[in-house]
């Protein structure tokens, strides 16, 4: 993985980006970055996009999908997840080094982001890493209505009904009956 795009080579004509993302690189990016989810890459993928110049600014557009393995936060089953990574970003030249550093801008999901660039190369690796992390869902769920695991016995409630649920209903019924009998 090179991610080496020389800023001097970027013109008003969009320059196609097609960078292989190795499993090792993806797993490093994905590891431990999301507190509630668990994601991994099973195969090499590719970051697709383009970059062009608009005056002094550079516009970076990425638009690709990541096929990941995820662990459902509710039932802990692994499932395949397609994560779209789509964004446009404007990079403006870094102000002179003597100027005070720009205030830390909090990362957001806004379509149009503003970043600074400096030096000889486009910081493509960092930008792709950042956008992959922003694109991951906060909570990975195998499906919208996943019923998760029983907190009592750990049974996968998508596949079976455990006796905990039933005994809870029974005891609620007993309480209700007790009240009615009084
Ligand atoms: Zn699930
Ligand atoms: Zn149970």
Keywords:
six-stranded mixed beta sheet; alpha+beta; binds zinc ion; 182 residues; 2 domains; single chain; 3 helices
Describe the 3D structure:
Helix content is 21%, strand content 32%. It has 182 residues and is α+β, with helices and mostly antiparallel strands. The chain folds into two domains: 138 residues, no CATH class; 36 residues. Strands 1, 2, 3, 4, 5 and 6 form a six-stranded mixed beta sheet that branches. Bound molecules: zinc ion (ZN) (2 copies). The site of one zinc ion has 6 residues, from loops.
The biggest beta sheet is recorded as: 6 strands, mixed
Mean pLDDT score, rounded? 84
How many strand segments? Answer: 6
> How many domain modules?
2
């Amino acid at each position: 993985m090179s991610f080496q795009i020389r800023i001097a080579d970027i013109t008003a004509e969009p320059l196609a980006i097609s960078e292989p993302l190795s499993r090792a690189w993806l797993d490093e990016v994905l590891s431990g970055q999301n507190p509630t989810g668990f994601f991994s890459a099973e195969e090499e993928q590719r970051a697709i996009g383009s970059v062009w110049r608009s005056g002094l600014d550079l516009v970076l557009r990425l638009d690709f999908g990541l096929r990941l393995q995820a662990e459902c936060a509710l039932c802990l089953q692994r499932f395949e997840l397609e994560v779209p990574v789509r964004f446009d970003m404007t990079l403006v030249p870094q102000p002179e080094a003597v100027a005070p550093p720009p205030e830390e801008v909090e990362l957001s999901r806004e379509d149009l982001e503003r970043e600074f660039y400096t030096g000889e190369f486009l910081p493509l690796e960092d930008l792709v890493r950042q956008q992959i992390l922003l694109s991951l869902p906060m909570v990975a769920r195998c499906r919208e209505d996943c019923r998760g695991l029983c907190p009592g016995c750990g049974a996968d409630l998508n596949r079976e009904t455990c006796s905990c649920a039933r005994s809870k209903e029974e005891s609620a019924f007993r309480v209700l009956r007790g009240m009615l009998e009084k």
